[in-house]
Design a protein that fits this description.
The chain is an all-alpha fold. α3 crosses α4. The chain contains 4 helices and no strands. The protein has one domain. It holds the Pfam family Y_phosphatase.
């Protein structure tokens, strides 16, 4: 299973996508060089999580291993609000 299929399987909620499957043409990226736009309400929570997961999957596919703290730390250098820490 490739990276694209893994990311598409992250969500099982069909309500996230239109019924007519028009999203497929927007998400199909055969040459893997076109930019992908990711956005959520504040630009950090859900989009940040998606970017970290995408990066982790890319590292696993390329290197076979990954350091989650290192990837999160790298993203937090540029955007401190990414992947908020909830303290109880």
């Amino acid at each position: 299973m490739g990276l694209k299929e893994q990311c598409q399987n992250l969500s099982t909620e069909e309500s996230l996508f239109p019924d007519d499957n028009s999203y497929k043409s927007a998400t199909t990226n055969e040459n893997h060089e076109a930019p992908i736009l990711i956005q959520c309400l504040n630009g950090a929570d859900k989009s940040g999580l998606f970017m970290v997961i995408w990066t982790l999957l890319e590292h696993v596919e390329i290197d076979g291993e990954v350091s989650m703290p290192r990837v999160v730390r790298h993203f937090r250098l540029r955007r401190k609000q990414i992947i908020p820490i909830f303290v109880v």
